[in-house]
Amino acid sequence: MIYGLVLLRLYDEALKVFHDTRNGGVKPEAITFASTSMFTSSALQLGKEVHQYTVDNKLENEEVVPTALFDMHSTTYGSHGNALEAIYLFQQMEKSETIPDRVAFLALLFACSHGGLVNEGRQYFDQMRVRYGIDPTIDHYSCATHLLGRSGRVHGACDILIQMPIKADVGLLGALFSACSQHGKVELDEEVVELLL
Protein backbone atom coordinates (compact mmCIF):
# COMPACT_ATOMS: atom_id res chain seq x y z
CA MET A 1 0.00 0.00 0.00
CA ILE A 2 2.81 2.42 0.86
CA TYR A 3 4.44 1.77 -2.49
CA GLY A 4 1.20 2.55 -4.33
CA LEU A 5 0.75 5.80 -2.44
CA VAL A 6 4.34 6.80 -3.24
CA LEU A 7 3.78 6.08 -6.93
CA LEU A 8 0.71 8.32 -6.80
CA ARG A 9 2.87 10.99 -5.09
CA LEU A 10 0.62 10.92 -2.03
CA TYR A 11 3.59 11.27 0.30
CA ASP A 12 1.72 12.48 3.38
CA GLU A 13 -0.66 9.54 3.13
CA ALA A 14 2.27 7.14 2.62
CA LEU A 15 3.95 8.56 5.71
CA LYS A 16 0.73 8.16 7.71
CA VAL A 17 0.37 4.52 6.66
CA PHE A 18 4.03 3.91 7.56
CA HIS A 19 3.49 5.40 11.03
CA ASP A 20 0.18 3.57 11.51
CA THR A 21 1.81 0.29 10.53
CA ARG A 22 4.70 0.83 12.89
CA ASN A 23 2.51 2.05 15.75
CA GLY A 24 0.09 -0.85 15.24
CA GLY A 25 2.81 -3.38 15.91
CA VAL A 26 2.95 -4.63 12.32
CA LYS A 27 6.50 -5.16 11.09
CA PRO A 28 6.90 -3.91 7.52
CA GLU A 29 8.95 -6.09 5.19
CA ALA A 30 12.19 -4.96 3.58
CA ILE A 31 10.44 -4.17 0.30
CA THR A 32 8.13 -1.77 2.17
CA PHE A 33 11.18 0.06 3.41
CA ALA A 34 12.64 0.18 -0.08
CA SER A 35 9.49 1.88 -1.39
CA THR A 36 9.54 4.43 1.42
CA SER A 37 13.01 5.53 0.33
CA MET A 38 11.38 7.10 -2.72
CA PHE A 39 9.58 9.73 -0.68
CA THR A 40 12.16 10.34 2.00
CA SER A 41 14.40 12.25 -0.37
CA SER A 42 12.28 15.32 0.30
CA ALA A 43 12.05 14.75 4.04
CA LEU A 44 15.40 14.42 5.78
CA GLN A 45 13.89 13.75 9.21
CA LEU A 46 11.65 11.04 7.84
CA GLY A 47 14.66 9.47 6.14
CA LYS A 48 16.49 9.29 9.44
CA GLU A 49 13.41 7.82 11.11
CA VAL A 50 12.92 5.14 8.46
CA HIS A 51 16.64 4.27 8.52
CA GLN A 52 16.60 3.90 12.31
CA TYR A 53 13.54 1.68 12.06
CA THR A 54 15.35 -0.68 9.68
CA VAL A 55 18.32 -0.85 12.05
CA ASP A 56 16.11 -1.44 15.10
CA ASN A 57 14.25 -4.23 13.30
CA LYS A 58 17.36 -5.78 11.74
CA LEU A 59 16.21 -5.14 8.17
CA GLU A 60 19.36 -3.32 7.05
CA ASN A 61 20.96 -6.50 5.66
CA GLU A 62 17.97 -7.63 3.61
CA GLU A 63 18.72 -7.85 -0.11
CA VAL A 64 16.99 -4.63 -1.27
CA VAL A 65 17.71 -2.46 1.77
CA PRO A 66 21.40 -1.41 1.36
CA THR A 67 20.77 -0.02 -2.12
CA ALA A 68 17.53 1.62 -0.99
CA LEU A 69 19.35 3.18 1.97
CA PHE A 70 22.01 4.53 -0.34
CA ASP A 71 19.39 5.85 -2.75
CA MET A 72 17.52 7.58 0.06
CA HIS A 73 20.58 9.13 1.66
CA SER A 74 22.36 10.18 -1.51
CA THR A 75 19.25 11.80 -2.95
CA THR A 76 18.53 13.50 0.37
CA TYR A 77 22.10 14.71 0.86
CA GLY A 78 22.44 15.63 -2.79
CA SER A 79 19.34 17.78 -2.74
CA HIS A 80 20.56 19.40 0.47
CA GLY A 81 23.94 20.23 -1.08
CA ASN A 82 26.00 17.52 0.58
CA ALA A 83 27.14 15.44 -2.38
CA LEU A 84 30.36 14.44 -0.61
CA GLU A 85 28.26 12.54 1.93
CA ALA A 86 26.51 10.74 -0.92
CA ILE A 87 29.89 9.71 -2.36
CA TYR A 88 31.01 8.52 1.07
CA LEU A 89 27.85 6.41 1.41
CA PHE A 90 28.41 4.96 -2.05
CA GLN A 91 31.97 4.03 -1.14
CA GLN A 92 30.72 2.38 2.07
CA MET A 93 28.21 0.41 0.02
CA GLU A 94 31.02 -0.78 -2.26
CA LYS A 95 33.18 -1.74 0.74
CA SER A 96 30.32 -3.83 2.10
CA GLU A 97 30.40 -5.69 -1.24
CA THR A 98 26.88 -4.57 -2.07
CA ILE A 99 26.71 -4.26 -5.84
CA PRO A 100 25.18 -0.93 -6.86
CA ASP A 101 22.30 -0.99 -9.31
CA ARG A 102 20.89 1.54 -11.79
CA VAL A 103 18.94 3.30 -9.05
CA ALA A 104 22.04 3.72 -6.87
CA PHE A 105 23.99 5.21 -9.76
CA LEU A 106 21.13 7.52 -10.67
CA ALA A 107 20.97 8.79 -7.08
CA LEU A 108 24.74 9.27 -7.05
CA LEU A 109 24.73 11.17 -10.36
CA PHE A 110 21.86 13.32 -9.08
CA ALA A 111 23.83 14.14 -5.91
CA CYS A 112 26.99 14.97 -7.88
CA SER A 113 25.01 17.14 -10.29
CA HIS A 114 23.29 19.12 -7.55
CA GLY A 115 26.48 19.32 -5.50
CA GLY A 116 28.61 20.59 -8.38
CA LEU A 117 30.95 17.59 -8.31
CA VAL A 118 31.45 17.43 -12.06
CA ASN A 119 34.62 15.30 -12.23
CA GLU A 120 33.30 12.83 -9.70
CA GLY A 121 29.94 12.57 -11.44
CA ARG A 122 31.59 11.93 -14.78
CA GLN A 123 33.85 9.31 -13.18
CA TYR A 124 30.86 7.46 -11.67
CA PHE A 125 28.92 7.70 -14.94
CA ASP A 126 31.80 5.94 -16.71
CA GLN A 127 32.31 3.49 -13.84
CA MET A 128 28.75 2.17 -14.01
CA ARG A 129 29.43 0.80 -17.49
CA VAL A 130 33.08 -0.17 -17.24
CA ARG A 131 33.28 -1.60 -13.73
CA TYR A 132 29.73 -2.84 -13.16
CA GLY A 133 28.50 -3.50 -16.69
CA ILE A 134 25.38 -1.41 -16.20
CA ASP A 135 24.01 0.21 -19.34
CA PRO A 136 22.85 3.76 -18.63
CA THR A 137 19.19 4.61 -19.18
CA ILE A 138 17.88 7.89 -20.55
CA ASP A 139 17.73 9.11 -16.93
CA HIS A 140 21.46 8.47 -16.42
CA TYR A 141 22.29 10.23 -19.67
CA SER A 142 20.06 13.11 -18.63
CA CYS A 143 21.81 13.45 -15.26
CA ALA A 144 25.27 13.31 -16.87
CA THR A 145 24.25 15.86 -19.50
CA HIS A 146 22.86 18.24 -16.87
CA LEU A 147 25.98 17.74 -14.75
CA LEU A 148 28.28 18.75 -17.60
CA GLY A 149 25.99 21.35 -19.16
CA ARG A 150 25.45 23.31 -15.93
CA SER A 151 29.17 23.52 -15.33
CA GLY A 152 29.86 24.87 -18.81
CA ARG A 153 31.29 21.64 -20.20
CA VAL A 154 28.79 21.62 -23.02
CA HIS A 155 31.21 19.93 -25.46
CA GLY A 156 31.37 16.95 -23.10
CA ALA A 157 27.59 16.95 -22.65
CA CYS A 158 27.12 17.07 -26.41
CA ASP A 159 29.58 14.20 -26.89
CA ILE A 160 27.62 12.05 -24.44
CA LEU A 161 24.42 12.61 -26.38
CA ILE A 162 26.02 11.98 -29.75
CA GLN A 163 27.54 8.70 -28.54
CA MET A 164 24.58 7.36 -26.56
CA PRO A 165 22.99 4.30 -28.12
CA ILE A 166 19.43 5.38 -27.37
CA LYS A 167 17.52 8.29 -28.86
CA ALA A 168 17.58 11.44 -26.76
CA ASP A 169 14.22 12.90 -25.87
CA VAL A 170 13.22 16.50 -26.52
CA GLY A 171 13.60 17.51 -22.87
CA LEU A 172 17.16 16.31 -22.72
CA LEU A 173 18.10 17.99 -25.97
CA GLY A 174 16.33 21.17 -24.89
CA ALA A 175 18.38 21.24 -21.69
CA LEU A 176 21.57 20.86 -23.70
CA PHE A 177 20.46 23.57 -26.11
CA SER A 178 19.86 25.90 -23.12
CA ALA A 179 23.29 25.09 -21.69
CA CYS A 180 24.90 25.89 -25.06
CA SER A 181 23.12 29.23 -25.18
CA GLN A 182 23.78 30.04 -21.52
CA HIS A 183 27.51 29.40 -21.85
CA GLY A 184 27.88 31.08 -25.23
CA LYS A 185 28.63 27.91 -27.16
CA VAL A 186 26.63 28.94 -30.19
CA GLU A 187 28.68 26.69 -32.48
CA LEU A 188 27.20 23.67 -30.70
CA ASP A 189 23.64 24.87 -31.19
CA GLU A 190 23.68 23.47 -34.74
CA GLU A 191 24.79 20.04 -33.51
CA VAL A 192 21.98 20.01 -30.95
CA VAL A 193 19.47 21.03 -33.62
CA GLU A 194 20.70 18.13 -35.79
CA LEU A 195 20.13 15.75 -32.88
CA LEU A 196 16.56 17.03 -32.63
CA LEU A 197 15.89 16.18 -36.28
Offer a quick outline of the entry:
The chain is mainly α and 197 residues long. Helix content is 74%, strand content 0%.
**Beta strand %:** under 5%
End-to-end distance: 43 Å
Q: Approximately how much helix is present in the residues?
A: over 70%
**Alpha-beta content class:** mainly alpha
Helices and strands, in order, run as HHHHHHHHHHHH
The gyration radius over C-alpha positions equals 19 Å
Count of discrete alpha- or pi-helical segments spanning 4 or more residues: 12
Unreliable sequence segments: none
Overall pLDDT score? 74
Tally of DSSP β-strands = 0
Main beta-sheet strand count, sense and barrel state: none
Q: Which word captures the global form? A: elongated
Structural account:
- The structure is a single chain.
- This protein has 12 helices and no strands.
- The protein is elongated and about 60 Å long.
- It has helices spanning 2-7, 11-23, 30-40, 44-56, 65-79, 83-95, 102-115, 118-130, 138-150, 154-163, 170-182, 186-196.
- The model has no long low-confidence stretch (mean pLDDT 74).
- By secondary structure, it is an all-alpha fold.
